[in-house]
Specification:
By secondary structure, the protein is of the alpha/beta class. It has two domains: about 10-20 and about 210-440, Alpha-Beta Barrel (TIM Barrel); about 30-200, Alpha-Beta Plaits (2-Layer Sandwich). About 45% of the residues lie in helices and about 15% in strands. Strands 5-6-7-8-9-10-11-12 form an eight-stranded mixed beta barrel. Strands 2-3-1-4 form a four-stranded antiparallel sheet, sandwiched between helices. Strand 8 (about 315-320), helix 12 and strand 9 (about 345-350) form a beta-alpha-beta unit. The relative contact order is 0.11. Residues about 120-125 have low confidence and may be disordered.
Length: about 450
C-alpha cells in the first residue's frame, strides 16, 4: 500500500458493523430448538419410574466463560446452536428417537441427553449399559462435522466436556431428585474426563511433533474465472487415529499443551520440503504463527535460504499471518516482515471478514493477499449481509493494493456470487480438495 492513511475512520466503523450484522445473522440461524429440563422433567421422571430412562449424558460448556467474554454472547449462541443442531441430527442413530434431549436451563450452558432403555438386548439389565461407548460415539458424531469450522469454534470445542451417569430407580425416592443427582454425577464425571482428555492430547501432540507424524496436504488456490491454479496452501493434519484421539483441531490441542510454536515450526518445514511440483509462477502459501517472525529465528532463516537454494523465486512463497494477531505482535514482527518483503517474499492476511477486522493491522502489514474467512464464504449465496461484507472487503483490498481470496467455496451457488462480486481468487472443496503433493499438478 502506498499510503498509510488509505483507510479512514468510516472504513473501520462500516467494516465492524457489517461483520457484526453477519455474526448476528448466523446466531439467529443457529438458535437452539431444544426444550429446557423444567418443561420435560415430569415426563422424564415418569420414564424413570417405569424403568424406561436408564441414564443421562451431559454436554458441559461451562468452561467457555472466558471464551464468551472474549468473543461475545453472539458467538456463544452460535456455538450452542451448532452443538444442539448436531445432536438433533444424530437422533435415529446413536441417539434414539425415544431419547430426550434438552437444555438444563434457559440461556444455560449444559445440554442433557436422557437415554431410553439399554443399547443392546432388551433383556440386558440397565446397569450394564455401556455409557462410555455411547459417549464416545456421540463425541465423534458431534465433533467430526465441526472439524472444518472456523478456528474460534475449534478453540471452543477444546473446552467442551462430556460426562455420564446411570439412573437406577429407587421406589422410596422422588424420581425428580434422582434425575438431579444423576446430573450432578454426570457433571463430576465430565470434569474428570476433561482432564484425562487433556493429558492424552498433550501426549499425542508431543509424540506427533517428535516423530514428525504430521500429514501434509495441499489445497489449490485458483483464479475463479479461468479455473487456473495460482498456487497451493499447505495444510497440516493428524492422521485418522491421532485425530480421533485428539478430538479437536491439531493446532488447538498443541496450543493447550503449550506446544503450538514447536508444532508450527515442524509443520512449516515439512510443508516446504514436501511441496508439490511447481512451475516458475506457482505459489506456495504457508501458515505462520506470529512468533515465526520474532528475531532472531534461525529456523526461518534456514527455510528462506533453502527456498532460494532450490532455485525458487521469493515471489513464489507466501507467508500467511492470521488476523487474530495482536497489534503488539505486529509491532514486534514488522522489522522481520519488512526484511523479507524487501527480498521479494509475499504475505497474506488470513481469516478476514468475521469479527471486527482491524484495519490498522491491514494498513501496517500491507499484505499482498487478503483471505476472506470460510465463515463468510460459506452460504454467501443465501445471505445479503455476507454478500455486502464481501463487497466491502473487495473495496478494502483495492484500497490496500491486495488481492482477495475466498476460502471455503463448496457450492456452485456461492461460487457464482463470488464471481459476480469480482473476487478474483478462491479455494475450497468445490475447486479442489486438499491432497498429498504427489497427487497434484502445478498450474
Amino acid at each position: 500500500m502506498t499510503e498509510k492513511d488509505a483507510f479512514e475512520t468510516g472504513d473501520q466503523l462500516a467494516l465492524t458493523e457489517l461483520a457484526e450484522a453477519v455474526a448476528d445473522e448466523e446466531a439467529e440461524q443457529a438458535v437452539p430448538v431444544l426444550p429446557v429440563l423444567h418443561d420435560v422433567l415430569d415426563e422424564i421422571a415418569e420414564e424413570v419410574t417405569n424403568h424406561c430412562c436408564v441414564g443421562v449424558i451431559l454436554l458441559d460448556v461451562s468452561n467457555l466463560g472466558p471464551w464468551e467474554r472474549r468473543h461475545g454472547a453472539t458467538s456463544f449462541q452460535t456455538l450452542m446452536g451448532h452443538l444442539s443442531g448436531a445432536i438433533k441430527e444424530m437422533q435415529g442413530g446413536v441417539i434414539r428417537r425415544s431419547d430426550r434431549i434438552c437444555l438444563e436451563a434457559v440461556g444455560g450452558d449444559t445440554v442433557l441427553i436422557f437415554l431410553s432403555q439399554p443399547r443392546k438386548e432388551d433383556s440386558q439389565p440397565a446397569s450394564m449399559v455401556d455409557l462410555e461407548d455411547v459417549v464416545g460415539r456421540i463425541k465423534r458424531g458431534l465433533f467430526e462435522p465441526l472439524a472444518m469450522s472456523q478456528m474460534i469454534y475449534q478453540k471452543a470445542l477444546d473446552l467442551v466436556s462430556m460426562g455420564s451417569a446411570l439412573i437406577l430407580h429407587n421406589s422410596s425416592v422422588d424420581p425428580r431428585r434422582e434425575i438431579y443427582r444423576a446430573i450432578r454425577r454426570a457433571r463430576a464425571d465430565a470434569m474428570v474426563s476433561y482432564h484425562e482428555m487433556q493429558r492424552r492430547r498433550n501426549r499425542v501432540v508431543g509424540h506427533m511433533i517428535a516423530h514428525r507424524k504430521i500429514h501434509t496436504v495441499y489445497q489449490p488456490i485458483m483464479r475463479l474465472k479461468s479455473r487456473e491454479v495460482l498456487g497451493f496452501e499447505a495444510l497440516s493434519r493428524a492422521d485418522r487415529t491421532d485425530a480421533e484421539r485428539l478430538g479437536v483441531h491439531l493446532f488447538v490441542a498443541a496450543s493447550r499443551a503449550e506446544l503450538d510454536g514447536e508444532l508450527d515450526q515442524a509443520c512449516r518445514a515439512l510443508s516446504v520440503v514436501r511441496r508439490p511440483a511447481m512451475t516458475d509462477e506457482t505459489k506456495l502459501f504457508i501458515n505462520c504463527l506470529p512468533p515465526t517472525f520474532f528475531s532472531p529465528n534461525r529456523e526461518l532463516d534456514r527455510l528462506v535460504d533453502g527456498w532460494l537454494e532450490d532455485g525458487l523465486k521469493p515471489t513464489q512463497l507466501v507467508f500467511e499471518v492470521t488476523e487474530q494477531i495482536t497489534y503488539e505482535q505486529v509491532v514486534r514482527i514488522m522489522p522481520t516482515i519488512q526484511r523479507l518483503r524487501d527480498r521479494g517474499f509475499l504475505f497474506a492476511l488470513d481469516d478476514v471478514g468475521t469479527g471486527a477486522a482491524n484495519l490498522r493491522l491491514l494498513a501496517d502489514l500491507e499484505p499482498d493477499f487478503i483471505k476472506m474467512d470460510i465463515g463468510l464464504t460459506n452460504g454467501i449465496s443465501g445471505s445479503h449481509r455476507k454478500r455486502e461484507l464481501a463487497e466491502y472487503l473487495m473495496e478494502l483490498a483495492r484500497k490496500s493494493g491486495a488481492t482477495l481470496i475466498a476460502e471455503g467455496i463448496e457450492t456452485d451457488e456461492d461460487l457464482q456470487v463470488l464471481v459476480e462480486i469480482g473476487v478474483p481468487l478462491g479455494q475450497g472443496y468445490l475447486l479442489g480438495r486438499p491432497q498429498e503433493a504427489g497427487k497434484l499438478l502445478a498450474g
